[in-house]
User: What shape does this take?
Amino acid sequence: MSETSSTEAREPSIPRQPGARRTLLEVDQVVLRFGGVVALNDVSFQIHEGEILGLIGPNGAGKTTTFNVMTGVFKPTSGQVRFDGARVSGRKPPEISRMGISRTFQNIRLFPEMTALENVMVGTDSRHKTSVPGALFRLYRVRPKPEELPQVTSDVPLLRIWQQVRRTCAQIFGLSRHILEERAAEKKSLELLQFVGIEGRANEVARNLPYGDQRRLEIARALATEPKLLCLDEPAAGFNPAEKEQLLTLIRQIRDRGHTVLLIEHDMRLVMGVTDRVVVLEFGTKIADGSPDEVSRDPRVIAAYLGESVDAA
Amino acid sequence: MMDKVRATEARRRAALNGIADRWAALPPWQRLIGVAAFIAFLYYLPLLGIPGLTWLRTDSIDGGNSWAGVLFTCAIYVLVAIGLNVVVGLAGLLDLGYIGFFAIGAYSVALFGSTNSPVVKWMQRTFDLEPTWAVAWAICIPLAIALSLTSGVILGWPTLRLRGDYLAIVTLGFGEIIRIVARNLTGVTNGAAGISAIPGPEGAPSADNKIFGLQDLKPWYWLAITVVLLMVFAVRRLENSRVGRSWLAIREDEDAAAVMGVNGFKFKLWAFAIGAALGGLSGFLFASRNAFIDPSQFNATLSILFVAMVVVGGSGNMVGVAFGAVLLAYLPERFRFVSDYRWVAFGFAMVVVMVLRPQGLIPSRRRARELQDRAKEAKVSV
Assistant: This one.
């Protein structure tokens, strides 16, 4: 409750309907031109906290472009994107990631030569502070919690003494922030790999993973940055029906973990099955915004996107 | 014939991987003993007298150079290769002007440490000091590191926004600019005449120096190898941290890394600065040991040689690039009878290595897998 009121205080321009949830992201009259080509024409919509929003439209409608504007890849010609009351437009991608927006890519863009675990750890690193001095000289000592101290486990007497020395040193001087962050990153990354269901492949190089696992890995990497809003760009592309079903479950689980989800998707059944609300774009213009049911009955949407045979799609 | 060579190569590669796997599977204390033994061997190398291995010494052939001297050269090239590996192998920024940083390190000890340098003479006049006064050698170490690091930042700040080939061209220019400035700025650097009497740990070179003299080069090698080991330790720490992961991520996909919250510019600048500092440190050792430098020692060919060390050894793998550096520094010395044709032999060897082993002699294991995959893809598409 206090959160909502603070948002109102910061952002009075957002109209609040009774019963409506807090607005997390607002795309406000965004226009994007590339030379003479209008990629986005006066697009406005909102994403509420805790919902799954679908963004659909025919090929070239500007869905990925909208994504790119939201994640700082493109700067809008006019209009702006606000996230959590703060301006997104004009910030650099790393900053936007720190604000709490993360995304996956339509054509998978993992770090191919790094292992699955390392890929996810790059995501967790964005919340960490260690840089060259910290890693090199192990500066910034932190007093560790009892369970973080080095354990004395060995049976070999000499090693036992060594471990005891390390434990005592850690008790007296503390552990470096680098060590603690590194451990936290590894733990969280493994947990995320487990969440998306590919923990068995943690040490495999990303490029060697099967296609479906690469998609899952991208989601895990995006979640590792602790986003408030997760944008999935056609996550089901190239999936068979069984895999799509699993993906649906995964998306719901992601929402249940407290992330808001924006979903771009072609597969109508997937969109209709999982989303709370759908925004439809055509030629860079928004033509509909509403619940999946309303949208699929909207004649403009049927004409523009679904064609004649709604059921077949 | 080619098939046979490839088959041998495949078997050798399998054996190498086996060694690496077995090594990784050993308990930590055994690995520690292994590393300690290897380090002890490195320190023993200049005294090498084990029967059956003495043929390795460069002074075992007619007119061969001092063995310790060659080892010293190998050591400073290893330092260069480790530094360049951070820039090229880890962060994926092609730097063709690395000699510039090497030269800056060398000139910092020459300009501030030698009584013959115009800079020191100017300081003596201005601050009314004795004619024997110069900045102490030990103070020149941080000075050389600081100056090369700063030059890395100054070069990197505007140019790291460039990518790929463009960056390579700019850095190539930088290396040449440093050399040409050193040659033409006669009032500061003595120009083409060079600077002599560059100090070592015991001060200016003279016959009275007991340890770091001009004849016995073993102490110089021991000094250099100590610096190398320290730097290997430091760079390892960086590799296995958030910094190292960020470098790899930038090398793999800079845009995706940015979206995942990696501040690409910051980490690229760090890679450049660290690489520059290591190059500078190496140049510093080179100048101290040589006691005399002039601009002709820092031409662009050396930059190419440095990149060749990294590429031949195995870009991205510290052991690999160190091996590459030793090989490229040592072979021409040991096989002096081909020294007249050495650039021809060199070019030929490079081509052979690149055909048979494009990922380098001891590649980073990830990189090896990537290149093998690519080879497979290429076959399928044809």
